[in-house]
Amino acid sequence: MINMAKPQMGEEEKRAVLEVLDSGIIAQGPRVKAFEESFATMCGVKHAVATTSGTAALHVALLAAGIGKGDEVITSPFTFIASANSILFTGARPVFIDIDPTTFNLNPDLIESVITPRTKAILPIHLFGLSCDMDPILAIARKHGLLVIEDACQSHGALYKGKRVGSFGIGTFSFYPTKNMTSAEGGMITTDDELIAERCRILRQHGMRRRYYHDELGFNFRMTDVHAAIGFEQLKKLQAKNDQRRINASFLNANLKGVVIPTTPSGYEHVFHQYTVRVTDGRRDALRSYLQENGVGSEVYYPVPVHKQSFYAGELGYCDSFPEAERGAGQVLSLPVHPALSQTDLYTIVNKVNEFMIPNN
User: Fold this and answer.
1) Tens digit of pLDDT for each residue in 26-40?
2) Hey, where are the domains in the chain?
3) pLDDT tier at 360 (50, 70, 90 boundaries)?
4) CATH for 11-233?
5) From residue 195, how far is each of 88, 117, 285 by CA, in Å?
6) pLDDT in tens, 202-211
7) Which residues pair with 113 in a beta bridge?
8) 93 near 72, Cβ under 8 Å?
């Protein structure tokens, strides 16, 4: 089976973990600090704050930015549910807008139509490894005095007009095992704002500024040195792994038939966390079954937009329609693109997709 993801751990990661275990400092310590500093440098920001997960990073970043009860945060419904749930965790309410059908990211042209006196922030989600169109988002944020909190959990190293995602506002990242780089599990917050960084550090550690003095309600969202040791070594390999993902995506773009391939707008550098095509003739699920039968993994990210999830539609009363997000949910299919794929794997993916989509070709 050609799997959708294959986390790659080398001797460097193994040695780093053993060094931590031998050191006697296993919880948050010097390895976390080193990882934070290296990640901040990669993103081109002054501060990075490690957490236990991407969800925790989003939650803490929103709280540190002052988002709370009664506030509204504008975001996309076409995403993993943690993006929206993190807003709910603060007591605020996600306000959804539809997506650009080409990029799958939120459509900046729709933002101003949903701004109200309660709007406090825009949360752009850099989905599948491609940055949102940040210039108009930042311009709208400046015009209306809104914060920008980036969900870059799928886009480590992606560029928008020469600038890394996670450096436009307050950035958040995930190091889940299937991501472009991993720490086995973990997250990171990035910012140029020293006060935001300090508040994130306090919130992730039980509300402490100094040990055992708890000034406010906080959480146990600390990364361990074991996880940071893995992440530190993975970060060194990120650029090469992203380059290989782009090479694999280029091969798929050049050879797949019968599906709508992903595009990268001018001025963007895609890192292809996912390689996501559209199957527009109603045969998406049948294609997925055919690939499974023929040893090729695939996945639907995401089959149900957030506003259609039962909790949001039922308990929270979301009833708006977002046609592009809903259309995407019925058409998208992600194919393997990870850097461990062999040339034979890539030919197999192409051949099996093309056999199904254009059987007499």
Assistant:
1) 999 999 999 999 999
2) 11-233, 238-357
3) confident
4) 3.40.640.10
5) 23, 25, 48
6) 999 999 998 9
7) none
8) yes
